[in-house]
Specification:
Elements lengths: L23 E10 L6 E5 L11 H11 L10 E7 L3 E2 L2 E2 L2 E7 L6 E8 L2 E9 L14 H12 L3 H11 L12 H10 L3 H8 L21
Helix pairs in contact: 2-4, 3-5
């Protein structure tokens, strides 16, 4: 049983307890003003009604890295983590901080306030989105069909006979077959009976025996 869903805090906003299971990378979808002064609400893809309400310190980090125009944040990504050392009223209660940001060319170093009159270095790493895998090339049906034919046991002569059979005498190679026919070969395979039939050379009529010169010829 995965315990992760049971660790989420019962709240209408993302909290540090929601990140007990590990960091969370979000994609920002909307910024709206909050009800409290200076509050900003970050909706993100899949937030399930629990947007992120960044603290002033994290808003300052965002403004330093991404600029002050919040509209530019939409579509960008942020990795959030739970820092258990965050203080509130002198008590360690934990809080949400930023570890990585997209649209960042390299590590970003700044300082943040931990308490009144106390600042500490703070580092944000660039968030690199994995490159999408290249699109698979369109399947070469003739090559795929050849592999099916060879796996089924067709010989070279049997392959030519098979092409002749399925094309009703209009093709002797796979490359000459229509794409729809090749697709059926790839999807359906070739039966053992068909392989045996195509691999068996056609029966040939025996050549007539040469006349025996030693036998007497019939009279005319």
């Amino acid at each position: 049983m995965d315990m992760t869903p049971t660790l989420a805090a019962n709240s209408n906003r993302l909290t540090a307890d929601d990140l007990i299971a590990g960091p969370l990378t979000i994609t920002v979808t909307k910024l709206t003003p909050g009800s409290a002064p200076q509050e900003v609400i970050f909706n993100f893809d899949g937030d399930q009604g629990k947007p992120w309400h960044p603290c002033k310190t994290m808003r300052r980090v965002l403004a330093e890295v991404w600029g002050k125009d919040g509209l530019q944040y939409v579509g960008r990504q942020i990795t959030l983590f739970r820092n258990p050392e965050i203080l509130y009223s002198g008590q360690k209660v934990g809080g949400i901080q930023i570890s990585h940001l997209s649209n960042l060319n390299g590590p970003f170093q700044t300082t943040i306030s931990l308490a009144r009159g106390k600042r500490t270095p703070y580092r944000v790493e660039p968030l690199t989105t994995p490159a999408a895998p290249p699109a698979a090339p369109a399947p070469d049906l003739a090559t795929a069909a050849l592999a099916v034919c060879q796996a089924a046991g067709l010989t070279d002569l049997g392959l030519a006979a098979f092409c002749d059979l399925v094309s009703r005498g209009t093709a002797s190679t796979l490359a000459q077959l229509p794409a729809a026919t090749l697709a059926r070969i790839v999807e359906g395979g070739i039966s053992a009976e068909t392989v045996a039939k195509c691999n068996t050379p056609p029966a040939t009529e025996p050549e007539p025996a040469a006349p025996d010169e030693d036998l007497p010829r019939a009279w005319s």
